[in-house]
Structures are given as C-alpha cells and as structure tokens.
Amino acid sequence: MSGTEFARERRRLLREVEEDMRACAAATGRDTLSPRVAAALEAVPRHRFVPHGMESLAYANRPLDIGLGQTISQPFIVALMTELLDLQPGDTVLEIGTGSGYQAAVLARLVERVYSVEVLLELARTAQRHLQESGSDNVALRIGDGRLGWPEHAPYDAVIVTAAAPEIPGALLDQLKTGGRLIAPLGLRHAAQELVLFTKDANGGIHRRIILPVAFVPLVEPGAAETATPGH
Ligand code: SAH
Q1: Sign of CA dihedral 26, 194, 51, 100
Q2: Which residues contact 106 (CB under 8 A, 6 or more apart)?
Q3: Which of 73, 198, 207, 209 has the fewest CB atoms within 10 Å, i.e. the most exposed one?
C-alpha cells in the first residue's frame, strides 16, 4: 500500500471512530472528536506501529497483537481516552504502558511533552524506533514499573494508563496536577473492566466517573509470577 492509500485508510478509520463516538455519546458525554484529536488520528501512521506483515490491518478499528502477549489498543479507544483528557498544547502527559508507541505518537501531536513508561524492554525498544521514524521527538521513554509513575517529571497535566489494574496506583494520582485528568481502565484481568476518568480538584480532592466497559491487558507487577486461572 502506498502513502496515499494509507492516508485514505486513515480518513476512513476516522469516520468509523466518529460513528463510535456518536454511538457511545450517552455514556461518554462526547458525541464527536475535537478537531485537534481528529487531526492527530488522521496524521499518525498507525501502520508503522504494528508488526511487519500486519500493515494492511493497521486501519481496522480493532486492537492488534504486537507480540509478548500485548496489544495495540483499538483506535476508537485511543481516540476516546485522548479526547477525555482535554489536552492543551503546552501540557506534559504521562503514559503508563508504551506498548507499540502508537498512543504516545498521538499524544505527541497534541502536547508539549510525553513521558511514557513500559515494563517490557523489547517493546520499549521497538516503540522507541517507531516513534523516532515517525518524527515524534517530544516523547521520552523509560523502562520500568509504571505503577510508580515517573516522579522526576511530575506533576503532569494528564495521565493515561493503558493497562488494567484493580485500583489506580496512588503514585499516579499523586503525580497529577491539581485540575488535572487521569484516565485508566480499572478491573480484574478476568472480570469486567471499566474505563474511569479521574479529576483532581483545586483542593486535591479526587473525583471519578465511569465511562465505558473495556478490555485491556493487565498492569503487571514486574517479576511477579503470572497467576494463571485456567477455565476463567
Ligand atoms: N498504549 C499502547 C497499548 C499498550 S498495551 C499502544 O498504544 O500500543 C499495555 C502495555 O502496558 C503493554 O505493553 C504492557 O507491557 C505494559 N505494562 C503492563 N504492566 C506495566 C507496568 N507495571 N509498567 C509499565 N508498563 C506496563
């Protein structure tokens, strides 16, 4: 597929995402993407963030395997999470779970600086390369446990968590500015998860709003043995 064809595919995908936005408006409170978020989705070459050989699937509105049991999130979910953060051009954003780097590349077009933490070295390396190749030079990556955030650059205007935990790690709320927004999937691995939007008010109070049911890979404890529960 040529660059022009990929661009056409992105515009088609954007229309599908807008349809999903309208269909879910009652739950999300947003019936359309803001022009900045739409432009970012139209610009970021998602086909560069999927494994070789899967480029032709890059603009389907669904998650894809990126290896090591991880996924690149569904475009609609990337768009929705980004939208709900109400990002401003001067913002600094923390992402937990770099994965393919695609979400980071979308954020990079909307804000001043993106800090992203990934626990799997191999994924972080690939994401770094793809981010560089796609010209996202305002993204910094770190390999480590994202549940601890990235305190050196805190506080953040917004935080986005792209792996699910039963509860939001306290360090991530601590590293959010007052007036800031944090979006995360919450729930157990084998149970229903919900996308939750947290806001921190001027007094440091935390408010949460449940947005939609979602299915994300788990936010893992590095080094912890996988607790497989066959049959569940
Ligand atoms: N934002 C990604 C989707 C990531 S999938 C994208 O656009 O492609 C979730 C990612 O979270 C996986 O890469 C997984 O390895 C990572 N992850 C899981 N637990 C983590 C932890 N404790 N710290 C940092 N990253 C973690």
Answers
A1: positive
A2: 37, 40, 41, 44, 78, 82
A3: 207
Decide whether any atom of ligand 1 lies within 6 Å of the 147 Cβ: yes
Report the CATH architecture of 3-228: 3-Layer(aba) Sandwich (3.40)
CA 127 to centroid of ligand 1, rounded, Å:
11
Q: Which residues of the chain have pLDDT under 50?
A: 226-232
Catalogue the active-site residues: 73
pLDDT tens across 159-172, in order? 999 999 999 999 99
Q: How far apart are CA 99 and CA 63, in angstroms?
A: 12
How much is the pLDDT for 88? Answer: 98
Beta-bridge partner residues of 92? 113
* Distance from C-alpha of 51 to C-alpha of 70, rounded to nearest angstrom: 12
- How many Cα atoms are found within 13 Å in the side-chain-facing hemisphere of 185? 24
